[in-house]
Amino acid sequence: MGVLRELTVQPGFGRRLRRGREDAGYTAAQLGALVGLHPTWIYELEGGRRGEPTLGTALRLARALQVSLDWLASGAEHDPDAHVAVTAGFRARRTAS
């Protein structure tokens, strides 16, 4: 089996990133601190003023936001009401009631 080295990002990545960040209750500064990015970089990515993120960056963002990489990259397979589990060393920010 090959190693995934590239990420294909579908239109709307920035909107999904912002939605995931807001749903998780993070500011751009908080998310940036979790994933090692400057808040301005987060805002530029959300606003479509940055190119596609690397696979590693997208994976760190997805883990921090507790969303799937598939959803963040393409919009597939995301249930906003699903329970947010604690994974990859990040603390969950919300749970479904």
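Second entry:
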Amino acid sequence: MKTIYKYTLQMNCGNQILMPKDSLVIKFAIQNNQPCIWAIVDTDSIYENRIFSVVGTGWQIENNMRYIDTILDGQFVWHLFEQTQNWSEKWIMYQTHG
């Protein structure tokens, strides 16, 4: 069954979340002073660990971080990234093999 789940994050790197495989993050926002993501999930899928990072403007990002969304929070701007093991390897393969 497909549905939408909410996951609460911390304002740092390395938020490890167990979620159904191939879940699609559709929203990143602050709710009750906490960063949250909402994702379309298939509850019949197997679950996998995914790692999300909330990064402030000017903070360092790694090559294996895939951008998802940006939010405004008063005077702060936060950016959501997903850390992927193979993202940089896939990008290199894409550039090489087009």
